[in-house]
Amino acid sequence: MRILHTGDWHLGRTLLGADLLGHQSVFADFLVDTVRERSVDLVVIAGDVYDRAIPPVDAVRLLSRTLERLAGTATVVLTPGNHDSAARLGFGAGVMHDRVRILAEPAGIGTPVLLTDDDGPVAVYGIPFLHPDLTRHALAEVPDEPLARSHQAVVGAATGRIRADLATRPGTRSVVVAHAFVSGAAPSDSEQDIRVGGVDQVAASVFDGIDYVALGHLHGPQRVGTGDRIRYAGSPLAFSFGERHQRKSVTLVDLDADGAVSVELVPAPVPRRLVDVRTTLAAVEAGEHRGDADAWVRVAVTDTVHPERMYARVKDHFPHALAITHEPADRPERQTARAVTATSDPVEVAADFVAFATGTAPTEDDRAVLTEAYEAAVLTLHDDRGR
């Protein structure tokens, strides 16, 4: 069986204010063409389809059109990530066409989508993003004995249900589509923090016994462990300048009759490159960086004195510049406050504020209180998304 593994589309996302939907539409066209040209049987989308719980209307329309086009060629299985609202993404899943299956309910984790090829049956299971505080009771074997408050516990319980179901299906190959942070993988700087109890990772061993594990959450394409059995497909576009060197792709997986896998990374289109430019304004105006004029750029102007009309003059040469700053090359080194961005660690930001307000770094007890407060806020957010 030929599987195309993708995920982390983040439809509706912007990059420093720039709308990405047009570029995401280019990726959707590429995806549909690849599925058709490479005779793909199954497309798995491993969460974070949308960038937020209530996505823009145009993002919903793009997903709808893309799923309709993919279903004309292959079976599609998708599961929600931590950015999605499982309830909203899963709306209508019970009446969806057989070719599009949305596995959004934790209660259904042990019930697979069953497919068949010339080599026999394949069971495809979905593990949506599982917030421990919201699922540790529902996934517990004993109702009055909730699971430990950790990602390891709830994902382990989920895969336990999957292995129990597989045990009743001798000779069936298995695919798990999951949204989680698995130990041993390398994060980027644009993924949302999913910590609970100070820990956001699960061990790769929770997926023992599964033939192929299609992961979502981390934006860099990568394997987990030594083989290709557990992989992240990564995001189709760079969602931060920290991802500008990643080679974005989709993962083409051939699942053999005995459950062995072979993998090919198919490069995704790059509608616009991301480039960092650090230079003088004179060099910009002399055309030394004209090769990057079509890119999204962050420009640091290094002139000693702040140039007149710096922003407008840079934009004349870099029409797609997303950030323009003045950073003199001879500026003395000095301690500066860390910039707070959408990808900053919330607990570290709070700790910095405590240090600023009190003149003393927070103690371990202080950090524990800050962590507990942050996790309570995240729980409230996920609870609201589920409604």
Mean pLDDT: 87
Number of helices: 9
Structural class: alpha/beta
Q: Profile the largest sheet.
A: 6 strands, mixed
Overall 3D form: globular
Keywords: DNA recombination, DNA replication, Endonuclease, Exonuclease, Hydrolase, Nuclease
Subunit structure: Heterodimer of SbcC and SbcD.
Organism: Curtobacterium subtropicum
GO molecular function: exonuclease activity
Please tell me about this protein's structure:
- This protein has 387 residues and is an alpha/beta fold.
- The protein contains 9 helices and 19 strands.
- It has a 6-stranded mixed beta sheet with strand order 6-5-4-1-15-16, with helices on one face.
- Strand 18, helix 7 (310-317) and strand 19 (321-326) form a beta-alpha-beta unit.
- Helix 1 (21-37) packs parallel to helix 2 and helix 8 (346-358) crosses helix 9.
- It is globular, with a radius of gyration of 23 Å.
- The relative contact order is 0.12.
Main features:
387 residues; alpha/beta; 6-stranded mixed sheet; 23% strand; exonuclease; SbcD_C; Mre11_N
How do the strands and helices of this protein lay out in sequence?
Layout: E1 2-6, E2 14-15, E3 18-19, H1 21-37, E4 42-46, H2 57-71, E5 75-79, H3 86-89, E6 100-102, E7 113-117, E8 120-127, H4 132-135, H5 151-166, E9 173-179, E10 181-182, E11 201-202, E12 212-216, E13 222-223, E14 230-232, E15 249-255, E16 261-267, E17 274-279, H6 281-285, E18 296-301, H7 310-317, E19 321-326, H8 346-358, H9 364-386
Parallel strand pairs: 1-4, 4-5, 5-6, 8-9, 9-12, 10-11, 12-14, 17-18, 18-19
Antiparallel strand pairs: 1-15, 2-3, 7-8, 13-14, 15-16
Helix pairs in contact: 1-2, 8-9
